[in-house]
Amino acid sequence: MLNKAAFYFWTFLFMLILPNVFMYFTEDTGTLTRVVNILLPLGAYWLALTAGAKPGKMFWVLFVFMFFAAFQIVLLYLFGGSPIAVDMFLNLVTTNVTEADELLIQIYPSVIFVVVVYGSGIVLSVIAWRKQLVLHRIFRHNQRVLGAMVFVLGLVMLVVNLFIDRSFRLADDIYPVNVCYNLGLSVQRFVQSERYPVTSASFEHKAVALRPDSLPEVYVLVIGETSAADHLGLYGYARNTTPRLKTLADTTQSLAVMRDAITMSNTTHKSVPLLLTATASQGDYDSLYTQHGLVSAFREAGFDTWFVSNQRRNHSFIDYFGCEAEHVDFIKDNLPITANTYDQELVERLKSILPSKAGETVAGSMFIVLHCYGSHFDYRDRYPKAWAQYQPVDYPSATSAYRDKLVNAYDNSVYYTDNVLYAIISVLESQGVPTLMLYTSDHGEDIYDDNRGRFLHASPQPTYYQLRVPMLIWASGLWRDAHPQQWSALRGRCGSPVATNLVTYHTLLDLAGVQNTLFRPEHALSNAHYAPTQRRYVDDHNRLLPLDSCGLKPEDVERFRAKRLRFP
Question: At 314, is the pLDDT very low, low, confident or very high (cuts 50, 70, 90)?
Answer without folding.
Answer: confident
